[in-house]
Amino acid sequence: MHENASAEAGLPSRATLRDGRQVVLRRIRAQDKAGLLAAFHRLSADSRYTRFMASMRELPDAMLESATHPVAGREFALVAVTDGDAGTIVGGARYAAGPGSDTCEFAVTVADDWHGVGLAKCLMQSLIGVARAAGYRNMEGYVLASNTSMRGLARGLGFVDRVCPDDSTLRVVSLGLAEVPGAA
Ligand SMILES: CC(C)(COP(=O)(O)OP(=O)(O)OC[C@H]1O[C@@H](n2cnc3c(N)ncnc32)[C@H](O)[C@@H]1OP(=O)(O)O)[C@@H](O)C(=O)NCCC(=O)NCCS
Q: pLDDT tens across 19-32, in order?
């Protein structure tokens, strides 16, 4: 990944959500560990399940460590925080790619009391911008078939939604990044 992809994609940035609340979107930092863990603990059991596809009471140390230390060149993570630097983490999105792959896999999570005001859409638009600037040609995600909000969000962003060939309880959503955004 180009080191300046996040700046090219306009990060950090400020977003005003549909209910008037504001957040700053910025790349994750090593110092975000405590904030990310607190955000995980505030998530409902349902949100944890749809994000991790497993019942997670705790976030294992190894996952927290890798979440806050994206591998340069093939991983990227951003967070949405209230009130700038010292603020609370209320959402996050990340992608990861295998070595040499031109396809990256995304994940996105928004705090339950911030659902439905457009925050995931802002996070995904920024993440897509970074992935495109970094040179990836495809973005995809694995989503529970029952996750109507994520599937609606993905479709609204132009992702194609297909059944997962290996597991009919999952959908694979994919977006070509090479096309010019908005082109007919
Ligand atoms: C899925 C999730 C990220 C959506 O976050 P959100 O901030 O509430 O979503 P947004 O408000 O940005 O919604 C954006 C779009 O998604 C679609 N959408 C949202 N909720 C929807 C629903 N219940 N049904 C259908 N479409 C929906 C709409 O197109 C919406 O656009 P609109 O508001 O202009 O109509 C959030 O519910 C979440 O964090 N869930 C737990 C983790 C998870 O499941 N992650 C996905 C797996 S990686």
A: 999 999 999 999 99
